[in-house]
Design a protein that fits this description.
Number of strands: 20
Structural class: alpha+beta
Strand content: 15-25%
Helix content: 40-55%
Shape: flat
Radius of gyration: 41 Å
Order of helices and strands: HHEEHHEEEEEEHHEEEEEEHHHEEEEEEH
Number of domains: 4
Distance between the termini: 84 Å
């Protein structure tokens, strides 16, 4: 029954399309007849504008009707450009198809293929490093240099890595670029590419580099380790901790590896860098604002000054600080103290992120009659009177909605 119904429906659609085609052909023939007649007997016949417009609209409607039918037959729609700029019968062209879904599928497949290819290359690079770490000749060469292999092979996007240890601590990192096969060594003295080819194996290239640079790497690493420990202690200095807290600053105690060595970023509350301290990997000096300091002790005072001058608060937080300063300035003014009459304003107290300015009676009992409250998180001001369970907002006070009779 369903198949028969579908056949009937498709038959109706096809018959409708045929009828439209016949109608369109007749309209087109009439239009072309008008144009031929007009060209042949231009001096005798004039086609009125309204007649021409009626004919044009009929042909355009014909194209629109066809486009409603074509999708039902799994055909793409067409753009019917019946009229050129001169009014001639135009051409019929295909409407550009929406290929977004096709592009998406193709891109997805390409990504899968690329990812699989990269994964295979990454595994090949890891295997290559694993074989290096297990190479008897390589191990023997390291032993002569009083070094050992590190069994841990790691990888991330684009690289595979292995390390060589000295006294159980990593001294050198070997990295293979999975896309280019470039071999790079990274140590306390910086990074350098190694020439690995048919004449020089990976093992021999690494051993040659270590033979030439091991002592320099060891000395520089010892100096850098000592300086990193000293600046780590500086970050914990009580004055440094206090100023960074007051000025809403963050110190990234885990440095970034940069060309010159190690960079410690000082940021605002939103993580935006304000300035940095760089530990030079070549000479162990600290650099801040293009000025070099021999050690952490020499850096301390300039750092404290720089931290004091910096403000890591966002604009919103800054506005809260400004509001708080305005409130405290008002409460400290002589005019406000005079207005208190027989009341006294106590020293501010802070509870759960809110600052309370208590008003008490000017007698021995000093009974609390109310409090002015400042919220450190929102910067909003509120009020509460002794015996009242509900606080009054600043808006309610100003509007008079909380004014007592």
């Amino acid at each position: 029954m369903t198949k028969q119904k579908n056949k009937l429906t498709i038959g109706k659609v096809i018959w409708g399309l045929v009828r439209l085609a016949i109608l369109g052909l007749l309209i087109a023939l009439v239009f072309m007849a008008y144009k031929v007649y007009d060209k042949t007997f231009n001096s005798q016949v004039v086609i009125e504008d309204d007649e021409y417009e009626i004919l044009e609209e009929a042909i355009i409607q014909y194209g629109m009707d066809l486009n409603e039918i074509r999708p039902l037959l799994s055909l793409s729609q067409k753009e019917y450009d019946f009229f050129s700029e001169e009014g001639e019968l135009g051409t019929v062209g295909e409407v550009p198809e929406d290929t977004t879904h096709i592009d998406g599928v193709n891109l997805f497949v390409e990504n899968i293929i690329d990812n699989r290819d990269n994964l295979e290359k990454q595994e090949a690079a890891k295997t290559r490093l694993s074989e290096l770490m297990g190479d008897p000749d390589f191990i023997a060469g390291l032993i002569e240099l009083e070094l050992t292999t590190n069994p841990e092979i790691t990888s991330d996007e684009g690289h595979a890595r292995a390390k060589v240890n000295q006294a159980g601590v990593p001294l050198l990192q070997i990295s293979i670029n999975v896309g280019t096969d470039e071999v790079t060594v990274q140590s306390a003295i910086g990074a350098e590419s190694l020439m690995v080819n048919g004449e020089t194996s990976l093992a021999q290239a690494v051993l040659n580099y270590l033979s030439e640079n091991k002592d320099n790497i060891s000395e520089t690493k010892a100096l850098v380790d000592e300086r990193q420990a000293s600046i780590a202690a500086l970050w914990q200095d009580p004055e440094v901790v206090e100023i960074t807290g007051l000025n809403s600053l963050n110190i990234n105690v885990d440095p970034l590896n940069v060309d010159k060595g190690y960079e410690y970023l000082i940021t605002d509350l939103e993580g935006i860098p304000l300035f940095s301290v760089v530990l030079n990997g070549d000479n162990g000096q600290f650099e801040m604002d293009a000025i070099a300091y021999e050690d952490a002790e020499a850096l301390r005072e300039p750092l404290l000054k720089k931290l004091t001058e910096s403000n890591g608060a966002s604009e919103f937080v800054k506005s809260i600080f400004e509001k708080k300063e305005d409130v405290e300035s008002l409460l400290a003014s002589e005019a406000f103290k005079t207005s208190l009459d027989e009341l006294i304003l106590l020293e501010a107290r802070e509870e759960e992120g809110r600052v309370y300015y208590d008003l008490v009676t000017d007698d021995e009992a000093q009974e609390v009659v109310g409090s002015i409250i400042f919220d450190n998180a929102t910067g909003k001001l509120s009020f509460i009177e002794a015996g009242d369970e509900n606080e009054w907002s600043l808006e309610e006070i100003l509007s008079g909605s909380k004014k007592k009779p």
